[in-house]
């Protein structure tokens, strides 16, 4: 599906009252969600997501255990592929036990061939890495736990 068609679909969702639209073309599914409300990142702007066709809902299993009160969870800022390293074969940005500083690069999210580096909003120590390298992650999914 070409970029112009995706842009038109996003505009359509933004101008309409629908909250979700999924279109499949040539084996690629584009899902556009409209998230309205005060916590929405762009106040009603639609979000687009491309994925492989899904035949049945996935069993996500039980939710992860609640984090201790002093821990901080770093979540994915968008959907996409989670990458721990800047390139294949390179060492990861962070490992469990690493002490990180505010502004330090933590991981990359790849969405539609766009690579977005995520930096630490606060310093701390990496306690757990909750997503696997190369894993599809969703907006808001926990990917790192800091102490």
Automatic annotation (TrEMBL):
Residues 71-147 form the Lipoyl-binding domain. It comes from the Bacteria. Residues 34-71 are annotated as: Disordered. InterPro entries: AcCoA_biotinCC (IPR001249), Biotin_BS (IPR001882), Biotin_Carboxyl_Carrier/Decarb (IPR050709), Biotin_lipoyl (IPR000089), Single_hybrid_motif (IPR011053). The keyword Lipid biosynthesis applies. Pathway: Lipid metabolism; fatty acid biosynthesis. Keywords: Biotin, Fatty acid biosynthesis, Fatty acid metabolism, Lipid biosynthesis, Lipid metabolism. This protein is a component of the acetyl coenzyme A carboxylase complex; first, biotin carboxylase catalyzes the carboxylation of the carrier protein and then the transcarboxylase transfers the carboxyl group to form malonyl-CoA. This is Biotin carboxyl carrier protein of acetyl-CoA carboxylase. It comes from Rhizobium puerariae. The lineage of its organism: Bacteria, Pseudomonadati, Pseudomonadota, Alphaproteobacteria, Hyphomicrobiales.
